[in-house]
Every structure is written in C-alpha cells, then in structure tokens.
Amino acid sequence: MNIPNDKLDIPTLRAMRTWDVLAISCFDGRFIPRTVEWLRQEAGVFDYRTEPGSSKAIIDSLPDLYRIVNVVEIALRFHEITEVWLIDHADCMACGGSGIHQSAEAELDFHKRQLNQAKQALQRMCPGLEFKTAYIDWESAFFL
Questions:
Q1: pTM beyond 0.90
Q2: Hey, which CATH number is domain 18-143, 3.80.10, 3.30.450, 3.40.50, 1.10.40?
Q3: Structure confidence by residue, pLDDT tens digits, 27-43
Q4: What are phi and psi of 53, to 5 degrees?
C-alpha cells in the first residue's frame, strides 16, 4: 500500500494500520537522512530498523540475525508487511570503509555480495516475504 507523499496527511496516517515495507539499513548518521528521504519517495510509509553494518550484522552474527528476524516477525504481525528492504551504503566503517576497496565499483560489488547473502539468510527464516536490496552512495540511492 504505497501512498504518495503528498497524500500522507495526518488523517490518512491515523487511519493506516498496515503498509508494505520494513527497511533495514546501517545506523551511520551520515546516511540516515538520505536513506529516509529515499524510503519516503519509494515506499511512502514504512517500518525502519537500523543495525551497525546492515547486511554485515545479518550474515556475521547469529544473535543479530535472530534479533532482526524478530523485528521482521513483529512488523509482519503488527503492520502486515509484505516486503523487507535491505540497504547498505558507501564507506560503511563496519565493513572496513571505502578505503579497503580498489574502486567505487569494487565497493559496490562487495556490498552486492553481502546484501545477497543477508537476503538469502532472511529468506530462509522468513518465507513468504519479498526481499529487495538497495545501495546508497554519495550521489544516489537505488535498488540492486
């Protein structure tokens, strides 16, 4: 149920009980405003969770994975979400920052692999939901 931003007035928001998207991104404050702006454009209303490293948290730590699955289950139960969007960003310090990559393209490829692994892990534990991956760099935000 994506509603255009210009239609998201207070009466509409008060009446809403369900929406489609739970977004999970990194907690890096440099990217949160741009991430939220992009999410508003793409989803309208959404649930939002931040985790250090986003996809890295999901694939590197079973406790983090289980905590995120719990968040997905809560969003599904309370808001009937149908999609989970996993979002990584450029220069993520949890992943070593941009400096460890040979180029911006190499960094993007790294995040594509990380996001795909995270997506697969969550798909196994949360069947029936659609999963999308996205990336935010210094100039743009986009689905992969």
A1: yes
A2: 3.40.50
A3: 999 999 999 999 999 99
A4: 85, -5
